[in-house]
Amino acid sequence: TGSYEHILTSTPKPGVGLITINRPKALNALCSPLFVELNEALSKYDNDKEIGAIIITGSEKAFAAGADIKEMAPLSFAAAYNDNFIAPWSHLANTIRKPVIAAVAGHALGGGCELALMCDILYCTANANFGQPEIKLGTIPGGGGSQRLTRLIGKSKAMELILTGKNFSGKDAGEWGVAAQVVDGGKDEVLEVALKTAETIAGYSRVATVAAKEVVNKSQELSLKEGVDYERRLFHALFGSKDQTIGMTAFAEKKKPEWSNE
Ligand code: CAA
């Protein structure tokens, strides 16, 4: 367990790093110091050879109720632009190479919704409360919501949500393909599902899981041909890994592979 002010960290299963956003007095609003801690914990797990998958969760009431509105209220354009306000929010998507799973219960609004969308796999409760309510504050999403949500659910639905600030439920998130699975129950139940998946991923070769995440994410950036070419190159490259030999030999010998992570 690390020593942070706004988050808790633990390794509840072998190979699984769990980050719990823990700022209950502000419904886990993502103030700048919280994001610094979140990034530090993410990088620590990403660099830890024992860890194979990372989970981000919140509380029963809130995954995160957005960026911290009280911190943002007095900002000027110059301050936001010159200091590149919320630049640390790009760390998760741009830098973290191991799979990251969001386990969402309660509010996931504004930046909280965006943080969940940045994760590689999203699980939520049926009554989780997602939305991009920035329009009600006289502004727009700033953590990638207009881009990631639109890619996931299409332009018309994303426009409607972002222009009206209307929320959507965990059940909707499942139906629209935003969530990989909608879980009955509350935070404990959704975390249980996330832990199972994380443990499964952490049980595979780290070389393969990191490569798998990399190629799936490329599909969001490249044309189909470029993406398939990219995948093919990395697929070829994995013939240079020890774990490809270990995995395929174990199959032929009807044994359980003992991964080297090399
Ligand atoms: N920032 C700062 N403080 C917040 C917060 C936020 N995003 N969300 C909640 N809080 C605080 C409240 O101010 C309140 O603090 P006090 O007790 O000191 O007054 C405390 O958390 C509890 O909140 P409520 O009393 O409002 O709780 P509720 O259960 O009545 O309502 C809620 C819950 C509907 C989520 C409501 O808190 C709410 O609407 N929050 C704001 C949601 C929002 O607009 N998020 C988007 C932020 S903008 C953004 O994220 C920009 C971006 O894209 C990067």
From TrEMBL:
InterPro entries: ClpP/crotonase-like_dom_sf (IPR029045), Enoyl-CoA_hyd/isom_CS (IPR018376), Enoyl-CoA_hydra/iso (IPR001753), Enoyl-CoA_hydra_C (IPR014748). One of its GO terms (molecular function) is enoyl-CoA hydratase activity. GO terms for cellular component: mitochondrion. Its EC number is 4.2.1.17. Pfam families: ECH_1. CDD domains: crotonase-like. It is an enzyme of class 4 (lyase). Keywords: Fatty acid metabolism, Lipid metabolism, Lyase. One of its GO terms (biological process) is fatty acid beta-oxidation. SUPFAM superfamilies: ClpP/crotonase (SSF52096). Belongs to the enoyl-CoA hydratase/isomerase family. This is Probable enoyl-CoA hydratase, mitochondrial. It comes from Penicillium chermesinum.
